[in-house]
Amino acid sequence: MNNLASQWLQHATxxxxxxxxxxxxxxxxxxxxxxxxxxxxxxVHTFGCGHATIxxxxxxxxxxxxxxxxxxxxxPLTFFTRIVGEMGVxxxxxxxxxxxxxxxxxxxxxxDPRDTMWxxxxxxxxxVNIDVALEAQKRGxxxxxxxxxxxxxxxxxxxxxxxxxxxxxxxxxxxxxxxEDASVPLKNHQDKVGPVxxxxxxxxxxxxxxxxxxxxxxxxxxxxxxxxxNVPGDTTAHDRLDAALAEYKRRIAGV
Length: 255
Description:
Blueprint (H helix, E strand, L loop, with lengths): L2 H20 L1 H16 L4 E5 L5 H6 L9 E4 L2 H4 L10 H8 L4 H6 L9 E5 L6 H12 L3 E6 L1 H4 L12 H4 L2 E4 L7 E3 L8 E3 L1 H22 L18 H17 L2
Parallel strand pairs: 1-2, 1-3, 3-4, 4-5
Antiparallel strand pairs: 6-7
Helix pairs in contact: 1-10, 2-10
C-alpha cells in the first residue's frame, strides 16, 4: 500500500475510533428519539445537501435498512452527475446558501409532531439546512443534527437567525471529521486530498440505525427490513421486500 493511501486509511480509522470513543451517549439519545417516532408509526425524515446526502441515500432504501426513515432528497442539492451546465456545482453552491429555499422544500411534505428531523451538515453554517431545522421545530418535531460540530465551533453562520445547525438542534452528534474534510497533504499542492466526512457520516448512520433497531426489537416492535435478494436458496426474500414496501406505502399514505 502506498504512503498516501496509508495516510488516508489512518485518518479515516482515527475518525471512526473517535466516534466510537466520544459519541456513544449522543448516538443513543438520538436513536431513542428516532425509535419513538418509528414506534408511533411515524417518520424519521432525513435531509442533507451535496455529499451530505450520501448518508441519507445509504440508510434507506437498501439491504439491511428498514421502514421508518424517509429520505428528503432535493434534486438540485443532490444530483452531481452534471458538474457543469444544468444543475452544476455553481448552482448548487448558490442554492444551499439561499435563505428561504429550505422553507419552500418543507412545504412539499406532510409532517407530524411525533416525527424526527435528522439533518446531516458537515459545516453547520449553510442556510438550507438551517431553514429545514427551524421549520421542523416550528412543526413540533425534534431536530437531530450530525456533523463536524466541534470543528465548527466559532464559525459564523450564513443564516439571518444568527445560529448554526448545531446551535439549533435538540440533539447533536459530532462526526469527528476535520473542518477542512480533506485529510492528506499532497506535495506541490495547496489543497489536500482524501476527504473523510463521508466515511464519518456513514459510520454514524449505521451506529445509529443499528441502535434504533436494537431499541425497537427490545420493545417488541416488528421491523420491516429490506432483505438481500441475492442469497441462493432464500425463497421468500421478494415477499419480505414486498411487505416492507407495502408498509412504506401505508405510512406515506398516512393510514
